[in-house]
């Protein structure tokens, strides 16, 4: 009986995780539910797609931030004060970006992390917009704009990845989703 309960629990957690991924692939675009065929938590192949393709599969707010380099207003994002345990993924393509144990309360108004999940999960570009010189952080798989990197973080590296919540999707650790 214990084995049956254990297998049933594993099945239910797996089903829950699958449904979460499917829900994240589904977005409302121009009033219609659209499945993003490029969203994958397992495929690490670099995506080189025209902006017109992204516009068809991302909702207007996510497209504006991830493809047009917009920024959501401070203190409005769903992950700003969020402290769940799990993994943050790119909302556009599903690439793993950050673990929750690298998140910290920066009080800047956006979710902040002191390190990426893997060195190649993000890429960096020089950003000279608004008469400033900053380091832009982009998804290493689909080149989506995620936010900026600053040198005032809490660890020895002094890194603060200041991210737009809308560019992120969160999946709780399996042991925390009970």
TrEMBL record:
A Pfam family that the UniProt record links to this protein: SelR
Entry keyword annotation includes Zinc: no
Keywords, alphabetical: Oxidoreductase, Signal
EC number, UniProt record: 1.8.4.12
InterPro entries attached to this UniProt entry: Met_Sox_Rdtase_MsrB, Met_Sox_Rdtase_MsrB_dom, Mss4-like_sf
Oxidoreductase in keyword set: yes
GO molecular function list: peptide-methionine (R)-S-oxide reductase activity
GO biological process, alphabetically ordered: protein repair; response to oxidative stress
Residue span, MsrB domain: 51-173
GO CC, one annotated term: cytoplasm
Catalytic activity: L-methionyl-[protein] + [thioredoxin]-disulfide + H2O = L-methionyl-(R)-S-oxide-[protein] + [thioredoxin]-dithiol
Signal peptide: 1-23
NCBIfam families in UniProt: peptide-methionine (R)-S-oxide reductase MsrB (TIGR00357)
Protein name: peptide-methionine (R)-S-oxide reductase
